[in-house]
Amino acid sequence: MDITFILISVAKIIGLVFLTILPMVAYSVWAERRVSALIQDRVGPNRVGIPFTKIRLAGLGQPIADGIKFLLKEDFTPSHVRKGYYWLAPALTMVPALLTCAVLPFGSELFGIKMVIADLSVGPLFIFAIASLSVYGIVLAGWASNSKYPFLGGVRSSSQMISYEISLGLSIVPILMIFGQLNLSDIVMEQARNGWALLPLWGDRLSLKGFLLFIPIFISFVIFTTSMFAETNRLPFDLPECETELVAGYHTEYSSMKFALFFLGEYAAMIIGSGLAVTLFLGGWSLPFGWLVPEDGASVPFWMGALHILSFLGKVVAFILFFIWVRWSLPRFRYDQLMRLGWVFFFEIALFNILLTAGILLFVK
Amino acid sequence: MAIVVKRPKLSFWEKLYLPGIIKGLGITLRHFFLSLTGKTKVSMQYPEEKWDSHLPEYYRGAPALVTDEQGRERCVACQLCEFICPPRAITIHPEEIPSEDKWAKVEKRPQEFEIDMIRCIYCGLCEEVCPEQAIFLRKEYAFTGLKREDMVHNKKRLYEIGGVREGLVNKWNELK
């Protein structure tokens, strides 16, 4: 381990996690509130701007005010909880959500450095391994709270997350089969050269085989996105916390910054899930139609690297807006419907989809 | 006897559920763009935009004392409003009109008249009970204060809010 590698990694971690994802979490809460308000013909938070002035900036100061509010609130621990686990749970939700961003390639190159924190050759496996840990945070929160509603929320959440992890994992197998590898950076590079998984309109994939493969990829995408909703506990699958039945589900007993950690974890998981979907299906940092693809071995100029990062962030933002749009359009599933959808439909369709992909790869030249 | 509820028969597309989702997404998207471009406008941005000019004549805002056209106070400090007031928001300190005064025949007037706006429930019983038509519910409704004392309207403030009200009042009739 030489020191420059460590310093560069630290710089990338700070740049991605603290300067990109956490502000994005804060502002996706704001976006959620504004978009939901507009969908429901309301206005939403549009007042908080620069303090002590009349400048409002369409409410862009709201997340900062919310953050300060969370920091200043009393951190209340009820007397009936198991303290150790109760304190551990919010951290266990937040940490896995942020850890998974380590393997996401968020840009091509900047100053000759690859824009990914850890260029692992087991990218998606790493993400699933870590993301499945976040269920522990929720289960611990539910059990340690020692109260009915959090308990029910925790039980529901664990069964839901475990069920949907299966279809989530199976749904990306066709993608991995098509690209033949597990390194996310190389998958993105391949998509940049030969057409995005969901947009096979240039390069090698502009062929009969490419178009045929579009069918299983589209099925994969639908299953992956839906399972992602379930994994991140978003509506229409927000049974772990459904307000109308369980008060607030597993975080009913939490307040102040501990509640905020659950909130941050949920949104961070959403952002990183969007990032993974963008990486696998929508060409990651690449621009459409093979524009500005870096050559092998050639250095990438600064403006191009920056453009690639912006492209990635733009796609992620669009995906988050899609998340929000869906949340405010669909009603919540009933619990048995949720389980049926996961186990009876998605699981089978994902399995069949793998066979279909294998068939196309085998027989169509 | 159990009632058998007939389930609606769903068509293939309804069973597939996806067309319904897409239709729903379309509806929310339309609402989103219509309110984004300002075509649907429901909310009123409160402190800047107010409903005040649309308030109906019968609106029950803050109770206030009124004077007549010549600036004379109508209240005779009969204290009926003080008695009727359900939350006991009104406090009147009556005083006698000195005998050398031109209107000594009216006998009483309020020396101080206080309405505690923290207590007031805007019911309008004071207006209804007043025999001299001296107290009315006006259209002001937004009162704020930093102390409890700020929220008590004294006589001066009540006349400021109340303003002038025209109409016949018997006590100014010298013959009666």
Topology at a glance:
The complex is a heterodimer of chains A (365) and B (176).
Chain A: H1 3-39, H2 62-72, H3 83-99, E1 109-110, E2 113-114, H4 123-131, H5 134-144, H6 148-171, H7 173-179, H8 184-194, H9 208-231, H10 243-246, H11 256-281, H12 302-327, H13 335-363
Antiparallel strand pairs in A: 1-2
Helix pairs in contact in A: 1-2, 1-11, 1-12, 2-11, 3-5, 3-11, 5-6, 6-9, 6-13, 7-13, 9-11, 9-13, 11-12
Chain B: H1 12-16, H2 18-36, E1 63-65, H3 80-84, E2 90-96, E3 108-116, H4 125-129, E4 135-137, E5 152-153, H5 155-162
Antiparallel strand pairs in B: 1-4, 2-3, 3-5
How would you describe this protein?
The complex is a heterodimer of chains A (365) and B (176). In chain A, 44% of the residues are buried. By secondary structure, chain A is an all-alpha fold. In chain A, 65% of the residues lie in helices and 1% in strands. In chain A, helix 1 (3-39) packs across helix 2 (62-72) and helix 1 (3-39) packs across helix 11 (256-281). With 176 residues, chain B is α+β, with helices and mostly antiparallel strands. Chain B has a domain at 73-170: Alpha-Beta Plaits (2-Layer Sandwich), CATH 3.30.70.3270. Chain B has helices at 12-16, 18-36, 80-84, 125-129, 155-162, and strands at 63-65, 90-96, 108-116, 135-137, 152-153. In chain B, the strands form 2 sheets. Chain B has a 3-stranded antiparallel beta sheet with strand order 2-3-5. Chain B has a two-stranded antiparallel sheet with strand order 1-4. The A-B interface holds A 35, 38-43, 325-326, 328-330 and B 21, 24-25, 27-29, 31-32, 34-36, 40, 42-43, 45.
